Known about the structure:
The protein is of the alpha+beta class. The protein has helices spanning 15-26, 49-59, 76-96, 111-120, 143-156, 174-180, and strands spanning 5-14, 29-32, 39-48, 62-67, 70-75, 100-105, 127-131, 136-141. The chain has a 3-stranded mixed sheet. The longest helix is centred in the middle third of the chain and has 21 residues, at 76-96. The model has no long low-confidence stretch (mean pLDDT 86).
Amino acid sequence: YAGRLISLDLQDTDIDNALRIIAEVSQLNIIASEDVKGKVTLRLIDVPWDQALDVILKTNGLDQVQEGNVIRIAPVDKLRAEREALLEAKQAAEALEDLQVKYIRVSYARAADVQEQVQSVLSERGSVSTDERTNQLIIKDIEKGQASAAELLKKLDLRTPQILLETQIVEASKGLVRSLGFQWNYNLA
């Protein structure tokens, strides 16, 4: 918890009033649904406002959703049902989205070697196959799955680091050394 410290001493106060005090301290907008009712009695000294809000909500079977600078408060069951409905709507939209085909050329790896990793990031409806001749992946999926596959391939299809070693062998005779004008103090046999 990182909110500004507050002290509250409330006895048999409507929960709406407690939320109003926290809204004032947090400088956020708090909206409580009509299901938010009840009384609260508490004594909190030097507690971060966000912790005080969590304590009030948990003791009254409530939960919060923050959207920008607005906190929406409702019963836990109601917010859970909203989240599930939102998830179902998102899944339904994905199920209705048309499948698209994308061809991605693999430069440094073999397409067959990365096929399994790419398949793991696709949606349930997505599929991937390879063309060995052109070393390409053929990805059939919704747009989100194709974007995930392309991002993964950027990270997997990298040049393997290599080292180049070069040597040169030079043979020289005693006569070559003299003709160059050098005189070294050792005998070449």
